[in-house]
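Hey,

The postdoc asked me to send both predictions to you directly instead of through the lab channel. I've kept everything plain text so nothing gets mangled by the mail client. Protein one:
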Amino acid sequence: MSDLHQRLARGLAAMQLSLSEAQQESLLAYLTLLHKWNRAYNLTAIRDPAEMVARHLLDSLSIAPFLQGERIIDVGSGPGLPGIPLAIIQPQRRFTLLDSNGKKTRFQQQVKLELGLTNLEILGGRAESCAPEQPFDEVVSRAFASLQDMLCWSEGLCAPGGRFLAMKGIYPTDELAALPHAFRLQAAHRLQVPDTDGERHLIVLERAA
């Protein structure tokens, strides 16, 4: 077993996530593609594949137990984080990735093709300009600078009664105090991501029905 396999397996065990061998292989295949494309297209500031296991794969998968919806959109997905790792381990859900950067959406399309991710859709564009035929059950992001920006730009993507799941570092006390009236804090989870430093939180906001 390679070092990357060991790191991934150790991290999954610590997070109590049970994945098939095929799912683990797909996660590492995604990581290989990300490392390869990153040398030419600068998709992520993290260069070391070993570091990518924790800070990209395990970090993305840390929110898997909290997903509830059938149709989920990952806004500002970048190179497909957290959407692609989640799509790999939860084939019963449909994930849409949205990003305005063309080289990143081209990379996402290549991953979808090479890994055969039939539950994945790629959209190019900005969140505030996106007009889906049907709103999503949940809007996920780990890229927005503030909760206010996420809600302002992504509100139209979320179904009434749907949820916003924001991946944050330290607990965003000030941002939560300034939430628009149409949203309420449903839950906040302290995320445990092996081999990473600093705090990680998942903030779950509910949109009024």
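Protein two:
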Amino acid sequence: MARLVIPDDEPPVIAPSAAYSRLEGWDVVTYPTRPSSQADLKERIRDAEFVINVRSTSQFTREILQSCARLKLISIWGTGTDNIDLVAARELGIRVTNTPGVSAIAVAEHALTLIMAVARQIVRVDRQVREGHWPRAMVTQLHGKTLGLVGTGAIGRELARLGKGIGCRVIAWTFHPRGDVAEWVELDELFRRSDVVSLHLRQSPETVGMIRREHFDLMKPTAIFVNTARGAIVNEADLLEALQTGRIGGAGLDVSRKNRYRG
């Protein structure tokens, strides 16, 4: 019987899902923890014919793929494919699939939540109230402000809709603009005009380190930068410097470059 391995269901999303019951009758091995190292990942999937990958921390390098002689398919429970060596997979005859748009609404809502949290200074105000203070913060009203989208895939398009719904002007840049998602502008103009910049590009050799100091230098000192894409697309040191020097107003992040194995 063909073996299917889920090497990284932490926190669990597949095991509690309705889809999991459809695997009844398969030889399924599900790990409720993430691999601690590349060697651990190799050991978990070495006998698998099919792998369902949940977390991008699992790195399917050429070495890993070459060590799995029976592997035929890696199915990604998500959209990003940057954790898989696609060239090696193609050469080895391993099919790679993903689920584009699967969480577009949820991630767009999350991006909007981060924007709101920074604009309303919710974290700082909450901390000060817990310390016994009663802060009177001058917060940013988003209605009438300009939301700039870097990337307009399924998530970017959904955030454009949400942004317009709260009264934002929406401008956008992407590699291949099409449709009337927003007003299309050049990347430098987007950073210059936006009160909020939200990043929605996929990670690729073309985008790693793409957003850097020169872009933050263009931003308004009150502007907010949000990244719910991949940490490696942004030069983290440049972003940190922009925040520490007050070059930009704030940032809402749920990703960083430090999401790989250590050691």
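Summary for protein two, as requested: Residues 259-263 have pLDDT under 50 and may be disordered.

Thanks,
C.
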